[in-house]
């Protein structure tokens, strides 16, 4: 079996293993909860007198805000990881660097999102629900798309996850049949 085909199979095995793993073990939620919540608390503490109960909730005045898993955006990290692993033609070093870059961008955007939502909840509770729903149903998806498009541009990625692998395998199969 050719080296490229083995590499494709290996990437898909890793991708499937991670996808299955995150179904049963909240890996990305566990990893990204502290770097999401602590900076959010530190920034909010500049402007508000708040009480923090470790990484699960904060209280500002008479409002208690719980940080549930969806606040951490673990599924977005999972999607970026899977896009990374299913992209053809990247070295391991470049994959790791790209994921760190993507995760850092997502982390910054997620902290900003949490800050906006918490400030709205405290200062303008009447528009919190609609803003929260806009973030939940639209902007979070746009974050991931934005990050991936930026990654493609910065790192000059010319392959399309999954599609480039299929094209490569079909091309190799076609060449073998022509011999």
SSE layout:
Elements: H1 3-24, H2 27-47, E1 50-53, E2 57-60, E3 63-66, H3 69-72, H4 74-85, H5 92-123, H6 125-154, H7 163-178
What report would you give on this structure?
The protein is mainly alpha-helical. It has one domain (3-169). The chain is 77% helix and 7% strand. The chain has helices at 3-24, 27-47, 69-72, 74-85, 92-123, 125-154, 163-178, and strands at residues 50-53, 57-60, 63-66. A three-stranded antiparallel sheet has the order 1-2-3, covered by helices on one side. Strand 2 (57-60) and strand 3 form a beta hairpin. Helix 2 crosses helix 5 (92-123). The radius of gyration is 20 Å and the shape is elongated. The relative contact order is 0.12.
Helix percent reads: over 70%
Describe the biggest sheet?
Answer: 3 strands, antiparallel
Helix and strand composition category: mainly alpha
Shape: elongated
Tell me the β content.
5-15%
**SSE order:** HHEEEHHHHH
Number of structurally distinct domains: 1
How much is the radius of gyration in Å?
Answer: 20 Å
What descriptors fit this protein?
single chain, 179 residues, mainly alpha, 3-stranded antiparallel sheet, 3 strands, elongated
């Amino acid at each position: 079996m050719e080296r490229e085909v083995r590499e494709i199979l290996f990437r898909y095995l890793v991708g499937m293993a991670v996808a299955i793993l995150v179904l049963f073990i909240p890996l990305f939620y566990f990893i990204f909860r502290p770097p999401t919540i602590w900076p959010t608390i530190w920034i909010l503490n500049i402007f508000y007198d708040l009480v923090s109960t470790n990484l699960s909730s904060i209280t500002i005045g008479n409002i208690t805000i719980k940080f549930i898993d969806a606040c951490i955006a673990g599924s977005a990290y999972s999607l970026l990881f899977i896009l990374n692993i299913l992209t053809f033609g990247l070295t391991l070093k470049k994959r790791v660097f790209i994921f760190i870059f993507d995760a850092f961008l997502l982390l910054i955007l997620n902290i900003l999102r949490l800050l906006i939502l918490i400030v709205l909840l405290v200062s303008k509770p009447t528009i919190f629900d609609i803003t929260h729903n806009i973030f939940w149903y639209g902007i979070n998806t746009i974050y991931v798309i934005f990050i991936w498009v930026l990654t493609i541009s910065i790192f000059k990625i010319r392959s399309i996850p999954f599609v480039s692998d299929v094209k490569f395998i079909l091309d190799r199969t076609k060449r073998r049949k022509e011999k």
